[in-house]
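Students often ask why we bother encoding 3D structure as a string. The short answer is that it lets us treat folding as translation between two languages. Here is a chain of 211 residues written in the first language.
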Amino acid sequence: MEKLINANADLFAGIKGAIFDLDGTLFDSLWVWEEVDRRFLSKRGFSVPSDYSQTISTMSFRQTAEYTIKRFKLDETPERLMSEWTNMSRELYAHEIFLKPFAKEFLEKLKIKGIKLGVATSSNAELYMPALRNNGILEFFDSVADTTGRRGKDFPDVYLAVAKELGIAPSEGIVFEDLPVALECVHREGFRTVAVFDKHCLSAPEFCDRF
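And here it is in the second language, the structure alphabet:
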């Protein structure tokens, strides 16, 4: 996000609120889920299929559990999978997840500009809340929401919920994401969008801007 520290003012013309994804956007954290997936499936005698991460990328936590059970024909409940995933990743998020370079400085600059800040994530609150606190940015946000109880990020639900809580219309908001399908979705709703580069989006580089 270094380039955005001195971004052209036109990028924020008419913008009253900025909504951020966490994993792969503010947090350098996508490696955690690769490791969780590897350990989880290996324990059950499977390797991670090449299309697995991309397939679940827009799903909510529960949708991912339901999909995994169906795909691998597991005799387990979604609750059991979600609990195991949470336990495996909780310690990593609490102690080993850090911000991407210049992310905190960028958030501080937006706050100084008077732009309201929100979080829209597919992650679980048990994971992202400790990471937000430990990295000293939780207090920056006026709204924090996830896809729990909502459709995944191939639908605009979580972004619209955050915008409503910020008191802004989509046309007054800008969304920062590393997920191409999410960017396309919110763009159709009228949000301004910024694609954040992460090594995991190399499969769709045309959507990724290297900050």
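Translate back mentally: The two ends are 4 Å apart (CA to CA). Keep this in mind for the problem set.
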